[in-house]
Amino acid sequence: MKHPLGKVLLIATATGLPYGTCPAEEAKPAQASLARITVDLDKPGVKVSSTLYGIFFEEIQRAGEGGLYAELIQNRSFEDAPGFPLGWTLLKEGNADARIALDKTQPLNPNNPTSLRLEIVNPNGGRAGVFNEGFKGRPQELGSREAREWDQWLTTYNQAVKQAKTGLYVEANKDYRLSFHARCGEGFQGQLTVSIESQDGTALASREFTGNGGLWTKHEATLTVSATDLNARLVVSTRQAGTVWLDMVSLFPKDTYRGRSNGLRLDLARMLEAMHPAFVRFPGGCYVEGDSLADSYRWKRTIGDVAQRPGHWCVWGYQSSDDMITPIARAPKSILANTR
């Protein structure tokens, strides 16, 4: 059967100018040359394997964390920055007196040594807590975790947060999976309230949690949002005095790609799937190498309970949770570092 187009004639012209020469700089008109290439569509050549067409993915500029990965909370494990809770803000309403700090005294586990300590000195009839606005701000452009460079970068980060028009995006009547670990200091008898709120404090979904003690307790719930908000926040609060520690505070849309509880954003993953890639190359070459050998990608640390995964510092300027998986193509191709 002959191809409907038969033969195709491709004609190309060349000016004959040396590479890098601007035509305007040439005093004399160049002699154009004509080349002819004939393609016979009825006589195909070497068959090209269908497995050669795929997708290149690299964790860079939050393509994964805050992008394809469906986690909505930035710095959920409090390991993303040294000395301060990046992405988390103290909430004090009315005359409440409270403070927050990072704490390593009683870690959730050895791989996740940092938690957030919330100390409510006196609620004074109001509520106190912390909130997270999602992946606002910008990566640490210096790619270093030295304290001096973090101080310089934090100014630009805070400016980017203030300028952001969107943050934690939620949709009306959609379900979101909440999970977090908590423990309380001696004498704390209050309950914790976790809510998804608009910036003005309007609750879009809320749930109360009790039964916290001196040991770490994992809480889980499904929150159904009442209204769409492009710039919401997740709030953990209480109206009781005492001390509470938090770790692995996570919020996922229930609707993820292939229904995975720790999965990918449904909209983005479907777009990639629609390209019908034979493979996905991930998570990226420079990402795997890291800034140093200590920060290189180790695949054995990316499996198991997400709360037990240490993550690592991404060469592109932020902490990576190492939790994202890419079940989009028939043959995922993982890049591995030559490390011991």
Overall description:
The structure is a single chain. The chain is mostly beta strands and 340 residues long. The chain has three domains: 7-45, no CATH class; 51-61 and 257-334, no CATH class; 72-253, Galactose-binding domain-like (Jelly Rolls, Sandwich), CATH 2.60.120. 10% of the residues lie in helices and 33% in strands. It is built from four helices and 18 strands. Strands 4, 7, 8, 10, 11 and 13 form a six-stranded antiparallel sheet that branches. A hairpin with a 3-residue loop joins strand 16 and strand 17. The longest helix has 17 residues, at 147-163. The chain starts with 6 loop residues before the first strand and ends in a 6-residue tail after the last strand. Mean pLDDT is 85; it is low at 14-25.
Please give the CATH class of the largest domain: Mainly Beta
Q: Number of DSSP helices?
A: 4
Which class of secondary structure composition applies to the elements?
mainly beta
Radius of gyration over all CA atoms, rounded: 26 Å
Number of domains: 3
Residue stretches low in confidence (pLDDT < 50, at least 5 long) are 14-25
The number of distinct β-strands equals 18
- Tell me which CATH architecture of the largest domain applies here: Sandwich
CATH topology of the largest domain, by name, is Jelly Rolls
Order of H and E elements: EEEHEEEEHEEEEEEEHEHEEE
Query: What would you give as the CATH superfamily of the largest domain?
Result: Galactose-binding domain-like
* Range of helix content: 10-25%
Q: If you average the pLDDT, what whole number results?
A: 85
Biggest pleated sheet: 6 strands, antiparallel
Distance between the termini: 57 Å
